[in-house]
Structures are given as structure tokens and as C-alpha cells.
Amino acid sequence: MVNKCFEPEEIFVNDGAQTILTNILDLFGSGLTVAIQSPYYPSAYESLLVNGVKKIIELKGSEDIGFRPPIPKEKVDLIFLCSPNNPSGTAINRSQLSAFVHYALENNALIIIDSVYTFFRRDNSIPLSIYEIEGAEQCAIEIGSFSKFANLAGIRIGWNVIPNNLLNNIFSHGELRYLWTIRNSIKFWGASSLSQEAAMSILEEESKSCMFT
Fold first, then answer.
1. What is the pTM of this model?
2. pLDDT tens digits for 141-179?
3. Cis ω on the peptide bond leading into residue 127 (within 30° of 0)?
4. Are 144 and 125 in contact (CB under 8 A)?
């Protein structure tokens, strides 16, 4: 396992995974080639259409590969993954996730991975975070949420990680993280105090011992 330690500025509190899934494209524009796992939570695909993205490649998992998404066969700019997946429930194991990271590094692509169901894993071959994979901090944005494992769906609280080390043909070191900070300052009022208090309570040692044993 590769352990990563991120700076506070690289971790953003949001009001649920859907916020970043549907808004991250504000920073990219429409002239992208985007690969998206299929099936996927509908709002991710719909956000591509709303933002005018026309080159969309569906990564459809078949039975012979355990219904997990295949690596893109052509060059893409963004890859949307959801593991464990909603709605199929399939999860991408360590070797398969490593292959996606390797592809992204080789092709200057960025991975946006929705990991809101990761705490339900029962198989240690399924990473808790894409940042367990070597090199992922250079090519991946990860999204987490309290809505599933902590049953806070209606309270709306989550987080996302945008590393400073992200590098590709579009953004330089720290630029994407900086632009997302500006975007949040303009368009996002932040998660409510109530939801933040609930999340902090969940992260206390007594709470964690009840949920993760």
C-alpha cells in the first residue's frame, strides 16, 4: 500500500459527491474527450451533456471482466470512475485500478473517481483510495461522502481531494487545485454548520470504532 499525506489546501469539504461530479467540468470546457464507466450514477453522464461535451466514450464492463470498466482504447482527457459502482455494485481491484493510473500517466489524462461506497468493501484487494496506487496523486481526483457509510444522505456533507501534483497537458502544478478554490469561493457557500458538526462527530474515535470494526 502507498500511503499519501495531503496538505489541507488539497482537501475540499463539499455538500455531497454530486456537487463536484456535476461542477468539476466548469474548469475544463467542452472540447474534451471523456471516458465514463458504464453504468454510472446518472448525474455524472448528464453533467457531460449539460456542459456540451460531445466526445463521450462509455467504458462498458462485460461478464468476462467481472463487469468492471475496460481501459480506454483511445486517448482521452478525462476518465470518470465509480468504485464500488452505483448501480452495479462491482468494484475495481488493485491491479485494475493500477492499470487506469498507468494509462492516465502515459496519456496525460485525469481520473475523477467517485469512492463514496468504498467503506463497504469486504475484499482487501479493493483499495480504500485510489491514492494507494503509486502515481495516482499525479493524475487522480477522488470524491468521498458521509452520505452512505455514515447515513448522512439528507444532511449533505462530503469531501474531494485535488492534489497539487496533478499534471497534464491542460494544467500545471497546483493550477487545477487553485482554480477549484477560486470556483468554490465564487459559486459555493459551503456545507452547513450542522452537517460539518455531524461529520466531525463521525470522525471521533468512538464513532469510528463502531462503524469500521
1. 0.89
2. 999 888 676 666 667 788 999 999 997 767 778 899 999
3. no
4. no
Order of all β-strands in the sheet with 158-161: 11-14, 158-161, 140-145, 110-114, 78-82, 33-38, 55-60
> What domains appear along the chain, each with residue ranges and CATH number?
8-211 (3.40.640.10)
Radius of gyration of the chain (CA): 16
Exposure string for 44-82, b = 16+ CB within 10 A, e = fewer: bbebbeebebeebeebebeeeeeebbeebeeebbbbbbb
Q: How many residues does the chain have?
A: 213
Strand locations in the chain, DSSP E?
11-14, 33-38, 55-60, 78-82, 110-114, 140-145, 158-161
Residue closest to 113 by CA, chosen among 91, 124, 123: 91
